[in-house]
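Hi everyone, sorry if this is the wrong subforum. Our group has a chain we'd like a structural model of before ordering constructs, and none of us has done structure prediction before. Sequence below.
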Amino acid sequence: MTDSNTDIAVVSLAQPLDSIADELGRSFREYGFAVIRDHGIPQDLIDRAEALSKEFFALPAEVKKAYHIPGGGGARGYTPFGTEKAKDAKVHDLKEFWHVGRELPEGHQLSEYMADNVWPSEVEGFRETFTKLYSAFEEAGGRVLEGIALHLGLDRTFFAPTVEDGNSVMRLLRYPPLEGEEAEGAIRAAAHGDINTITLLLGAEEAGLELLTRQGDWKAVDVPEGALVINVGDMLDRLTNGKLRSTTHRVVNPRGQAAYRARYSMPFFLHFRPDYMIETLPSCIDPQAPDDHPAPISSHEFLLQRLREINLA
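Answer:
Right subforum, don't worry. Here is the predicted structure as tokens:
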């Protein structure tokens, strides 16, 4: 097993998409992961968001807990420590997080699927900053999906209507500092796959993100500063009949001094529209096994099914 990052694609979104589409696709087929530079999310917006995230998590526990929505499945607002656990995991992950979702105009046909956002009044500029960051993530994700469409031989705009007004969620995440000798190499987020279409992750520069290879080894994902890590979620895996892989991954604590610091990150879980039917793409069906693919399911039904499995529904 090697910790080098030579075979997970590192591509620039500033390049013409057709020149990087197959490198992206190869990486997603083999590893389910790719790294994106020049993603277009302004660094000053990222810096501001990181500072506000830290400011929120530094608030007293009772202030944060006032933003926890019981029965909301963690879809919006604050989720305290010890709530979410990976599918089949015996223990809850050691983390707290905040979710920002899509803002829909009143009376929108998809409103029933998406709760209103809540915003902490204690942190100035929180709503404005994270609304901007949500849009920037969505734009970067749309470019990645265009690259994936080209790789799959589809029209480059194939995914645009499938994710328009989708139930995408931005998560601000804090893993607390760990103490004692066991902190080095401890598991912070248990092995899991993502439910959604693709995930865009900011804040993975600090060592610790690992994916499970086809050979059954854990491989570190090394990330250049400021880059985005992209991984395939279960919905895209299902749509492509497993051609693009939703890979099991985890977060382990680094060794040395970094083991004793809190860790922050911001994943954006890009989702299909709730009413989109995930039906295997014809080009991803093996002519030798025409029935060997998953049954069609709406993205909303699929999401609910999976949220129940991880203790959030």
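For your construct planning: The two ends are 37 Å apart (CA to CA). Residues 127 and 134 are 10 Å apart (CA to CA).
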